[in-house]
């Protein structure tokens, strides 16, 4: 099932970290999140020239600047070697794991990520989400579809829990 929307919660405007971002970075977050190529894992290929073409007053330098701000604020993770970008909390905020089969779709999307750094960031976010909302049906789908990934998530969860993160 292809994505056809980006779930933007109104509570984003109450998020102090998001409100501290300049308008260009906030807009870029919305641009990235609403790209049709964004996967169920929250990853998309990095095409700054394409993103620059989405607004008449935006060039590639502006795209790089806005994304750099998002990286510094930890809203996105970027791998320069693989040209992939991760919206770090996409799975959580888009309610991807609300259904069992969406957990399986998420596993498929993770399997298409080239960047080991981004996969690790996704594992961390899945572990944090599992600590916060252990009853999400999508976790069953993840465990069924990819037991090894599930073991990694649970191992990371134990580390996070022990550190109190």
Order of helix and strand elements from N to C terminus? HHEHHEEHHHHH
So what's the overall shape? globular
The span between the termini is 34 Å
Looking at the chains present, what oligomeric state does this protein adopt?
Answer: single chain
Determine the mean pLDDT: 95
Strand order of the largest sheet: 1-3-2
Number of domains: 2
Number of helices: 9
Into which percentage range does the β-strand content fall? Answer: 5-15%
Poorly predicted parts: none
Q: Rg to the nearest angstrom?
A: 16 Å
Largest sheet report: 3 strands, antiparallel
Quick one: CATH superfamily of the largest domain? Winged helix-like DNA-binding domain superfamily/Winged helix DNA-binding domain
Structural class: mainly alpha
